[in-house]
Each structure stands twice: as C-alpha cells, then as structure tokens.
Amino acid sequence: MARGKLRIHLGAAPGVGKTYAMLAEAHRRVERGTDCVVAFVEHHGRPRTEVLLHGLEQVPRRELEYRGGVFPEMDLDAVLARRPQVALVDELAHTNVPGSRNAKRWQDVEELLAAGIDVISTVNIQHLESLGDVVESITGVRQQETVPDEVVRRADQVELVDMTPQALRRRMAHGNIYRPDKVDAALSNHFRPGNLTALRELALLWVADRADAYLTRYRSEHRVSRIWGSRERIVVGLTGGPEGRTLIRRGARLAEKGAGGEVLAVYIARSDGLTSASPKELALQRTLVEDLGGTFHHVIGDDIPAALLAFARGVNATQLVLGSSRRKTWQYVFGPGVGATVARESGPDLDVHIVTHDEVARGRGLPVARGARLGRSRRVWGWITGVAGPPLLAALLSAVDLGLANDMLLFLALTVAAALLGGLLPALASAAVGSLLLNYFYTPPLHRLAIADPKNIVALVIFVAVGVAVASVVDLAARRTHQAARLRAESEILSFLAGNVLRGETGLEDLLERVRETFGMESAALLERASDVEPWTCAGRVGRGRPVDRPDQADVDMPVGDRMALALTGRVLPAEDRRVLAAFAAQAAVVLDRRRLREEADRARTLAEGNRIRTALLAAVSHDLRTPLAGIKAAVTSLRSEDVEWSEEDRAELLAGIEEGADRLDHLVGNLLDMSRLQTGTVTPLIREIDLDEVAPMALGGVPEGSARLDVPETLPMVAVDPGLLERAMANLVENAVKYSPPGAPVLVAGSALADRVEVRIVDRGPGVPDEAKERIFEPFQRHGDAPRGAGVGLGLAVARGFAEAMGGTLDAEDTPGGGLTMVLTLRAAGTRPEPHSAAEPERQAS
C-alpha cells in the first residue's frame, strides 16, 4: 500500500492562521471532489475558524476519562475505518490523554500515513524538539509538548503561515485568538514584540533551510551546474585544545546564516612530528564537526599561519574562525601569534573571526614535541644560556666569595638549565665554558689554566659528567616524545584507512587529496601501466603541482606491485614517512580496483538493459506491428474479393481502415527507429536558433482539429534546438496527452520564459499519473495503467525525453492542478551555453 502524503502548516506562534489555512485547503479539495474529513480540529472558540468547519465531514471524537475529567481525543480507529483520501489533524505536537493507543498525536498521524491516508496538520515552530533550548531562552518557558524534527522534515510539503508581530498582536487585542480575560496577560508575556520577532525568525530560517535542501536536490536531479546565489564556506582552525568545540559551534552558526553554508575544521601539525594534542580531545572535536554536517581535515605544515591560509584559499573559503590566543602576556615577546598573523595576511577576500573562549590567556597547556630536536625558540634560549650564561655568572661571582664548592654548584645549575632548554649541544657548550671559567678564576693557581689540587680535577670532571648526563636525558626524552607522537599519528591514519577499506566510502580523488594534505605535498597522482613496455598512464590526480608522467619524475614515488605507483611532488619525504605512505598507496590501489569493478557492474547492467529492450522490441514486432498489418491485409483482401459487391460507403470505410493502419504502422516504425538511434548514440542534433512558434504548430498536425490549443507568445526568446527533433518530441507529447484527455477538454500547449530557459507545458485533464510512476512512464516499452496493447508499444515518451536531452533540455512530468498530467519540456534559450554532460550521459539517455 502506498504511503500517504503529509502536508504541514508551520507557524511562529498561536493565532497566525495555521488552522484557518488548513480548513481553507480542505474546502478547496472538497470542491475538486476529494474525499476529505476532519479527524481532529480545535477551533478554540475563534468564530472565523469555526465557520470554516461547516460543510466538512467530521469524524466523531473519542472521549476518555482521566483524573475525574472527560477529554475528547481523535478516534484513530474510526478514521482508519472511514479511510478518507485526506484527513485533517490539528496540533501535531499534542500529547494524548493517557489511555490512548499512542502517547503523541504525531504517532497517530504516522499510522494514518502508513494506511495510505493523506494528512494535513499544523504545528508551531516552538514545538520542534531541537529548538526547545532556544525557545526557552527567548520566552522563558520550556515547551513540554514537542515533535521530533525528523517527523516534520519528512513531510511532503511544509507551508509557512506567516504574520508580522504587529498584526498578530492586533489580532490578539481584538479578541480573535484568546478570550478577553487572557488578552492582557498574553500580550505582556508570550506575545511580546521581541518574542514574536525571534520566533518568526526561527520559523523563517527553518523553512529556508528546508527550501535550500529541496533546491539542492532539484539542481542535482535537473543537472543544473550554474550557481544560484552565494555560498558560505567556513574554515575553523583547531589547535587540539579544549576551546576547539566552542570554535566549531561558532563556525556552524556562521554557516547556518548563509545559503548552503559549509564548515571545514582543520588541524595543522608540523611535518617533523605531530603536536602532542590530546587524541581524545581531537576525536571529540572530529565527532562534533561531523555531527554538525561539517568535515575534519588534518594538514601538515611547519608555518602554521601560512598553512592555515593556504588551506583556506585552497578550498575557496569565505570566512576563517580562530580562537583568541591562550598565551600569557609575557609570551608575546616571541611573536604576534597565529591569530594576528593570519588576520594581517588574509587579504580582502577572506574574513577572519577571532572568537573568545574560557581558555584565553591561561597558557598553552599543551606540550609540543617537534621531532628529535627541541623547538627553535627553546634551542635559541638553550644556546644563550649555555654560551652567555657562564661569563655573566662569573662576572656576578667576582663581586662575592662563596667558595669553590658553591661556585661549582652554581655553574652546574646553569648547565642543567641549558640542557633543559636546548638539549645536548647547548649543555655541552655550557659545561665546557663553565669548566674553563672555574679553572681560570676559582681554582689555584688563579688566572691560569692549570690545577694545583688533584681534588679540584675530580670536581671538574664530575661537573662536566653531570652536565652531559642531564643533557642526554633531556635529548632522549625529546626523541621518545617525538616517536610516540609519530606512532600515534600513524596509528590514527592506519585506522582511518582500515575503516574506509571496510566501509568502501572513499573515492580515489578523495584518498589522493588526503595523501596530499597529510604529507603537505603539492600534488598526488596514481600512475599505472599495462606491462613493462607500455607507457605510464594517470588513473587519478589532485593538486596544483607540476604534471608527472612517470614515477621517476616525482619527488616521492611509492610502487604498488609491478605496474602501479603513487607519485607525489612538493618535497622529499624522510624515510620514516614512507611506511605510512606505503599504506596509502596500497589503499589507493584497492580503491581503483573497486571503482573499476563498479564500472564493470554498470556496464553489465547496461548490457542487461539492452537485452531487455531487444526482447521488448521483438515482442513489439511480433504483436503490435502485426496488428495494423493484419488490419490492412484484411481490408485489402475484402476489397479484392469478387464475391461481394461493396457499396461506396463500405469501400470508403475499408479504405479509411487501410489508411489508419498504415499511419499507425508508420508511427510505430518511426518510434522504433528513433529509439534504436538513441540506444546506439547516433542522435546528433543540428542546433540552431529558432522561434518556438515556428515549430509548435507543426507538432499539432497529427492530432484531430480542436483537440489541442496553442498558447505560445510571440515575445518568447528564441531557443537553441534541432527543429526536427523538437517537432518529433512535441508531437509525441501532444499525441499522448490527446489520447488520455476526456472529450471536450482540449490539450493546452503553452510556452513561457524562465531565466535562461524556455518552458513548454503540455497540459491535459486526463486521469493523471501517481508520483511513483512519473519516472517509469519515460522508460522504453512502458505503458501506464490499463492501456490496451493496441495503444502503442510505449516508446513515445521515451523518444521525447531522449530527444530533449540530446538538445541539452529536460522533460519531466508534473500533476495538473485540478487533475491531469502536465509534461514540462525545458529548452535552452538562444545565446546561452549548454550544460556540461558527463561521460556517462549517452548511457543514461539510452537507459
């Protein structure tokens, strides 16, 4: 059983006219002959709404007792037993009285839809479940009755019933919404102008979001590649700190304000060892981004501001969201910071948002592991401490006599500080300079590089040994930290690859882009060859680097078997990175093989479809073509018979039958030939500019006079078409419409201009076609409903769509308001560029 359709009237607040609009729609449908009943509508004592209930059949309500009271509810069983075409169910978010079959009214509606009954309902924006917190912050009241957003989003139609706050307050003041004793309280609380304006904005944005989703689906279905409006692309820069979640939510809110906004979160890591950001925090931020509909990217770059700007410009971003620096005030002596640098170098085409958060000026909080060596700033300070520190300390000690033991302890502390800051080499330098200064200034004989007391020799040796030991420990710790960070990063990447292998989600270009981003390369390409003597060919490539035709031309190449290689350009990778690169290369080979298997499966389906069409063609030749031939042969045999003396009327009738059979045979053969041309891809349209009113009258020549009416204004722009193909397509459409139109209801052929397109609508008043069959009627050898075998082989609409697409147009079916079917033929206006077609377009047309 076909599922019923749900239409929802959405409003910003009570009293905007949702129920009134629903009842008005019901009256319109009843006037058109639709079986429509009122399952449950509450007029709340509003006179105008109550008047609209007159003339509509109402299903008696079911009364339930609860806590000593009697409450009327919708009688779901009675509505299902009545089985109307359309049921009116008010207040979708209503909570049913305990004892009802379902806890919520929207669950009752789901049962009606499952039974094939269309439902028209109403709901306020404040009752959507996801907006509960927002509505509470606006009105101060938490809504107890809610409906899941998915229920409303699945509706076939959502109509916004809108009213300005001022008009709604006037309706309230006039007593058209609540009783007079409740008006003052309502105007002072829920119906304040600010509340109504905020709720109205929520409703408008929600409907706009749904309209945008529908527009995106429409553009995809109709292959519209030209941009309609602007699109915001928001890049959120992450550091791995706890403020990342705040930044992601801020970026998502910015994206929601633009049409088709997109959020891309990017984490920049250095090429010589990824930062030691919390893996748990990054995983949480990745999940949050994906839950909000965005994407997470991991990019390697030594210069974080430059890498961030390069990524933002590479994805054509319009806005960049960064967090305020977590550095303390004194730390700004090392530089202006990432945020200030990005804002200064972003240029006029990229807006930078600096977002405050709870971690501002609390310190970085994240230790940084930058490879086997320590960071640049720490190394600089280590060398300053190791080389300049001992002379400064000697100058200070010259003014006070602390004794040799204390002097050596101070120089040892300075060596340890140099080791902690800069690692092994600065500590060795500090130990060497410090030992020389101790020998020269503090061990007898003074001011000479000689040692009189052997005990002092032991002390100096211990001094140097301790300095070297501390420096070695610091250097080893840095190496282990780097190795741990790299292994963690490799495990994350390998886990990502393994998950994609199991799910089969990543395409070849997406995988190559991930390789390029991960290793910070300019371009990535997958090369292959059929044999050792054949030239290399490129199976996929991303990036803007120089083109690579052979693996030996790349900066990095990773072989995959004997006849495939992953080639990267941009820089030479260290040997430790090639292990992960090998995993990427193996995955790229798997993705390529999977894509080819999918293409072979598609070709097999195409061959199966061709076999099906050939089988249907044989059936058409064996039956549908023999029928007119049999009629012609019978009429000719009768005329040639000498045993019967035919009257002039009989002879005329037999000749008319011969003529009709010949015309029918000619039409069938013509459609079969046209379909075979489409199947073999030999339709080559000769496009030229022509007025539509030159072709349209000729398309009506094959139907009886008076059965079609033409309405093509002379002011329409010229169209870029093949006149012959357009005439055949329109003729098939008109003949099909006349065939199903009732007597006395001529088919309307109307033309209109829409932006850079011209639409031709062929409108009939026949029985129409249900939505689930609208695409099937365009398939070859398909006839809708109970059309007799003699009505044709079912090729007319398939040929018409094939010709339309060959000329760069489209052909779709829509319902005619009031009953019937409308064929919408969309053509390119003269002077516009044709839409690009993919390589699979001929196969799609042939199907």
TrEMBL record:
Catalytic activity: ATP + protein L-histidine = ADP + protein N-phospho-L-histidine
Pfam families: DUF4118, HATPase_c, HisKA, KdpD, Usp
Topological relation to the membrane, as annotated: Multi-pass membrane protein
Tagged with keyword Acyltransferase: no
Keyword list, A-Z: ATP-binding, Kinase, Membrane, Nucleotide-binding, Phosphoprotein, Transferase, Transmembrane, Transmembrane helix, Two-component regulatory system
SMART domains: HATPase_c (SM00387), HisKA (SM00388)
Subcellular localization: Cell membrane; Membrane
Transmembrane segments: 380-402, 409-437, 457-478
One term under GO cellular component: cytoplasm
Superkingdom field: Bacteria
Segments forming domain Histidine kinase: 620-831
EC number: 2.7.13.3
Primary residence: membrane
GO MF entries: ATP binding; phosphorelay sensor kinase activity
Segment forming the signal sequence: none
Name of the molecule in the record: histidine kinase
Source organism per UniProt: Streptomyces paradoxus
